[in-house]
Amino acid sequence: MGIFLGGCQSKATTEVPNEIRIGVLNTPNDVAVARQLGYFQAAFPKQRVKFITFDSGVDANKALLAGGVDFATMGDTNGVVALAAGIPVQLCWINEICGANEALVVRKNCGIKSIHDLIGKKIATPFASTAHYSLMVALEQAGIRDQVTLLDLDTQNIVAAWQRGNIDAAYTWQPTLSQLLPESDVLVDSAALAKTGNSTGNITLVRQEFAQQQPQLTQRFIEVLNRAHQLRQTDYAKTVRAAAKQTGISVAEAKLQMNGTSWPGLSAEFSPKYLGTQVTVGQFVKEMQQTGVFMARQQTISQAPTLKQFDQFIWKGGLS
Amino acid sequence: MVAKKRRLTILVWLILLIVWELVTRLHLVSAILFPAPEEVWRTFVGILRQGYNGIPFWQHLGITLLRLFSAIILAIVTAVPLGLASGMSATVNGLVDSLIQFYRPIPPLAYYTLLILWFGIGESSKIILLYLAAFAPIYLAGVEGVHNLNQDYQLSAQSLGASKSQIFRWVIFPGSLPSLFTGIRTAVGVSFSTLVAAEMVASTSGIGWMVIDASKYLKSSVMFLGILILGGLGLLLDWGLRRLENAVVFWKGHQ
User: Mind listing the pLDDT tens digit for each residue in A264-281?
Assistant: First the structure.
């Protein structure tokens, strides 16, 4: 009887879609690995899995808002924007935690030894990114937030502006970082900022409607990505090769970028350390809320969502 | 007739405002896609008071107008003489006309990245982009102005013994003014529509940049506000130019 009822219920509320649309970033992350190794097709044999590449979380958010994708990967700052703007989405996965792959670099031999020496200098970063947030935190910690000029440049333009000598410093990520590194010094990186309670990372958002109607598919989606996280534990070389092949970069480049990040994995993610459990709010979520408070103070978002709103923002289906 | 037209215009805007208010009041569309009029107004008051991204509103408006007017003035100073010269002399025309005809239809965004590489991310690349957009219409208006001039005027002046410079001073230049004004109005329109693109890369100020930045944080009320300001500014600029035109070329339409 129960089975019968359950069957009816699921039939009434859910009609299994024949297509899953995933917004991806062109970086060597877990999505790239799972895609290259065919994990998605294996997990969704009945669906056509469609990948749409976005330049940044900014575009991914617009696509989520327009209902053009079911899942999208982006920096956690864009996730804060999505929550603050009231896009009907939920956070279902942490793809990676940023570390040495995002850093503030300055030109070599220009006398800048510490963040304090940046007073009066021009610093470029892609606005609304995790790097932008990390830069603001670093500047505020040094108390020089209002004494520098910030420029909003995307990563390709950072390289061009750097080569022309238009900028003195940049907070950006790999692979742009390695294009600047031969002639630059690292002042601070996101791993150091994470130690002060300002972690940044890339996250995946799911459309609320999709998560509610298709909890099994959403669960399967994060299991697919978890498979990539597990592979990284057991066979790092294979993981790097797959990521490199998918994103069209060399294995050495992929390794450099991936060395700077960490992939928590399913059991760690749904624990107090990251996304929390049914009863506790995760540390990563708390830090995201702090990010929201910070962004609201910078007036980049109009209002900081509360910790409760953040906790509700997490898709807890991953716990089961 | 004029009063009726004005009444209709006001009516159209009122209806638009009412529909806008209704659509948002009844929550027919999500507030991020369509912010309410009062929300846009609140944003406007907020930005007037506190500025946007730490920069006062007038500074955003000022830098945008500065970029626009530097480009327009630069274009007038160079394109008017070149256009008139090209209209009067077949040699000049042969030298420059094909070049300008070639670059004129290219969408400015197509060469903007090149301009950034050549001139950097500062003000110069932005002003040059707007300048290039403004140059062609004024140049063409100069050529047209000379060509459309009634030949009899020049011949009469010549037969009365006027020198070449006198003919230019008293016949060709004033005769081309109506056409030049039309060209300048077109130029302002074209570079105005390139403004947002010019402020898209490496700026942290300007009304166009405000719209772009707001879109990154999905602040749709700021986007709406920026778009309304740009629209209003465009109307105001065109109105000012028409007034100027009527004052300077008061004989337009009367031979």
Answer: 999 999 999 999 988 889
CATH 3.40.50.1970 fits B45-248, yes or no: no
Determine whether A278 is exposed, middle or buried from the number of CB atoms within 10 Å of its CB (0-12, 13-18, 19+). Answer: exposed
With 0.90 as the threshold, say if the pTM is over it. no
* Cβ-Cβ contacts under 8 Å, B40 against chain A: none
DSSP string, A175-201: THHHHHGGGEEEEEEHHHHHHTT---E
| Min distance A104 CA to chain B CA atoms (Å) | 18
Tell me the ipTM for this assembly: 0.75
Cα–Cα distance, B111 to B129 (Å, whole number): 8
Domain spans, chain A = 2-97+200-319, 102-195
Question: Which of B53, B215, B220 lies at the smallest CB-CB distance from A299?
Answer: B53
CATH of domain A102-195: 3.40.190.10
Matching CATH topology for A2-97+200-319 and A102-195? yes
pLDDT in tens, B125-142: 999 999 999 999 999 999
Q: Which residue has the tokens 């035109």?
A: B245
Task: Say which CATH class A2-97+200-319 falls into.
Answer: alpha beta
Residue B217 to residue A87, Cβ atoms within 8 A: no
